[in-house]
Amino acid sequence: MNLLPFILKSLYRSRRRTFLTGSGIAVAVFVISSLLALEAGFTTLIGSAEASVVNVYEKGVACVVLSRVFDSYLERIKSLPHVTEATGVLRGVFSYQSKDKPVMVAGIDLPRFQSIKNMRFKDGGVSDFNTRTDGALVGRRLAVTFGWKAGQTVSLLENGLTFTISGVFECPDQTYEGMVLLQKDYLAKLSREEGKSTVLLVQINDPNEVASVSRSIDQVFGNYPKPTKSQSERDAKAAELRDYRELRRMLALLLMATTLVSIFGAANSVSMSVRERSREVGVLRAIGLRKGAIFGILAGEAVAVALAGGAAGLALSSALLLSAGSLKGLIPLVVSPATVSAGLGIAALIGLGGAIIPSIGATRVHIIESLRLVD
Question: Are 188 and 69 found together in one domain?
Fold first, then answer.
C-alpha cells in the first residue's frame, strides 16, 4: 500500500508544526555538519603528510612551535643512509590586524624546500621572491581567508614584520597552504633565531625506512645540547594537532548533545501529532489498516520532515563553509560527499528515533478507545 499520499496530506494539514519541527532539525543538522566539516579538516591535514619525509624536532618540547634545533645538524643528517635531502624550517605565530587573527609564518630555504614539497603557483611566482629580502609566498587557503594577492604589502603586529607577497601557491601538504613562507634569513634575523629551525624536513628514498632513519637521527644527536625527536611527518602532524585535542573532544560532545536534543524534539512533535489524531488512527484501524501501515505513516511523517530540514541545514552549512574555506586559514573546512551523507543520515536518525516510541504507542491503543477520543 502506498502510504506517501497519507504522509504528505498530514504534513500539509499541520503546516505550522511541520515548519517548526523541520526548522529545528535544520538548525541541528547545520551545527552537526559544521562540526563534521571541521573534523574532516583535521583528518585532511594529517592525511596530506608525505610518506617519505621525516620531521625532526627538539626533544622534550611540549609545543612544537617552540622547538629549536640547530641548522648545523643538517650536514650530518644528509650523510645518513637513505637521506636524499634535508632543510630547516623556522616557524612563528604572528597576528594580522588583531590578536584574534593568527598567522603562521615559516622561514624557508626555497630551493631545498621545493625539492621536498611540491608547490604550484596560482598567482605570481618565485622570481620576485628570489630577488627581494622581504618577499613572501602565501598558501592559497590563507590568501583566500584574508583576501591577499600577489604584489600586496602586508604588516603583521609582532616584531615589525612586513612582507610583500610574491606569489600564492598550492601544496599537497595542506599544512603549508595555511602559512606565509619567507626567506629564512629574513625571519631569523627579525626573530633573533639565526642558525636555528623549528623543524628539520628530511626526505628519504624509501618510505619503509622512515622508522630506521628516525632512530638513526635521534641516536646521532642524543648527547648534543639539543637532542632530537624524529618521526614520520604524519605522526608529527598528529602531534602538532594535539593542542586541538580538547577542542575535538568538545566537538564530539556537542555532536552527541545536538543529536539527542533533536531526537527529543522530534519525539515531542510526533507525540503531539499522535495525541491530536487519536480518533483518526482509530478510524484507520477500523477500516482495516494494519498496525505496520499506521506505524509507517506516523514514522514516515517524522522522517520526511527530518530529511527536509536536514537538507535545508546541509545546504546552508555547505554554502557558508565553502565560502569560508577554512578556520582562520589554519584548518580547512571540508565539505565532502561523506559529510553530506552523514548529515542526511543523522537527520533520518533524528526523525526515526523521535518517532519510534510515540508511533508504537499509537498502534497499541485499542480501536474503541481511540474512537472515543475527540480530536
Answer: yes
Which of helix, strand or coil describes residue 356?
A: helix
pLDDT over threshold 90, residue 68: yes
Residue 38: phi, psi to the nearest 5? -70, -45
Is the pLDDT at 244 greater than 70? The verdict is: no
pLDDT at 88 (0 to 100) = 96
Paired strand residues for 229:
57
Size of the chain in residues: 375
**Counted domains in the chain:** 2
**Domain C-terminal end among 178, 205, 232:** 205
Same domain? For 28 and 148 the reply is no
Helix 245-276 with 291-324: angle, nearest 10 deg: 140
Task: Give the domain range for residue 251.
Answer: 4-46+245-372
Residues sharing a CB contact under 8 Å with residue 72, sequence separation 6 or more, in sequence order: 195
* pLDDT at 1 > cutoff 70: no
Helices 278-286, 291-324: axis angle to 10 degrees equals 130
The terminus-to-terminus CA distance of the chain in angstroms comes to: 26
What is the pTM for the complete model shown?
Answer: 0.72
Mean pLDDT of 296-310: 81
In a domain, 223, yes or no: no
Supply the DSSP symbol for 319: H
Q: How far is CA 85 from CA 88, 216, 225, 245, 323, in A?
A: 11, 15, 24, 32, 38
Domain finish residue from 205, 228, 254: 205
